[in-house]
Amino acid sequence: MPTHIEPPSLVSWAGRPTLMDAAHQHDDLEINLVAEGGTMLYLFGGAPVEVARGCVAAFWAAVPHQLVANSATRAHWVHVPFATFLGWGLPEMLVTRLLSGTPLVSEPSAALATDPANFAQWAMDLSSDQRERRRITMLEVEARVRRLALSTLGQPVRQYTGGDPVLRQVVAMVRHIGEHFREPLTVADIARAAHLHPNYAMAQFRKVVKTTVLDYLTRCRLAEARRLLVTTDLAIADVASESGFSSVSRFYTVFSSACAVPPATYRREHQHRELH
């Protein structure tokens, strides 16, 4: 059973990135800036995603993600609640890309000299009790995401090119899950994608991702279910099926436990916000 998905909150902070104990999810838009040092490597949904120095990344954090390798010495983070993100009325192509689990990651050549100062200012303003400061920050963050989209939509996501054999094996399994989670999958199917025995594959997966293959699979299905609930009018039973859940009852149980509300309530809370 996946752990409870963290509730959204409007926050910003900075520091030295640390490797994450396990893949996790939280229902908001996460924005990263690597300010100093080297790169941060995420396992994100079905692929490794590398964020280099000076680069900004934005992604829907309901997709399971985990920082598994890092040489950055300072980074900034901003978390925007999902309802706020939907309320921005961003272009449909941009919303579709983010909700489909594809992050926006700028190239080093597109780095803005003002980013470190801006991210630091946002952290200060969001910690303030002055509503006007927080409102200004939200306008500036929205503008930065829109500018990021201009330079990244249609561009491929930077891929991991490192040589760690264990990480390569896990990447193969994560990618297979990302491509096939809507289908019935077994541990043997996923292990086969990395040319490993199932028992060895499970051990390698847990060594890197710090959770089981089946738990990670369920997390991917939950992210897809939330996307379908917000962006379509599919019946709940069809959402369950299209997300890869074996039964509607299983879907209700897992979704309600992870998201703290049943699927219909989640839809009502988010779908009324018009997407442009």
What does this structure look like?
- The radius of gyration is 18 Å and the shape is globular.
- Helix 8 (213-231) crosses helix 11 (263-271).
- The protein is 47% helix and 18% strand.
- The protein starts with 10 loop residues before the first strand and ends in a 5-residue tail after the last helix.
- It folds into 2 domains: 11-152, Jelly Rolls (Sandwich), CATH 2.60.120.280; 165-271, Arc Repressor Mutant, subunit A (Orthogonal Bundle), CATH 1.10.10.60.
- Strands 1, 2, 3, 4, 5 and 6 form a 6-stranded antiparallel beta sheet that branches.
- Strand 2 (28-44) and strand 3 form a beta hairpin.
- It has 276 residues and is an alpha+beta fold.
- The protein has helices at 82-87, 92-99, 115-126, 131-152, 165-180, 187-193, 198-209, 213-231, 236-242, 248-259, 263-271; strands at residues 11-15, 28-44, 47-51, 56-60, 65-81, 104-105.
Which radius of gyration do the C-alpha atoms yield? 18 Å
Structural class by secondary-structure content: alpha+beta
- Give the class-level CATH name of the largest domain: Mainly Beta
Q: What is the number of domains?
A: 2
Please give the alpha-carbon distance between the first and last residues. Answer: 35 Å
CATH fold call of the largest domain: Jelly Rolls
Q: How many E-type strands?
A: 6
Number of helices: 11
* Global shape: globular
Largest sheet: 6 strands, antiparallel
SSE pattern: EEEEEHHEHHHHHHHHH
What's the mean pLDDT score? Answer: 86
CATH architecture of the largest domain: Sandwich
Strand proportion: 15-25%
Low-pLDDT sequence parts: none
Mind telling me the CATH superfamily name of the largest domain?
Answer: Regulatory protein AraC
Q: Percent helix among the residues? A: 40-55%
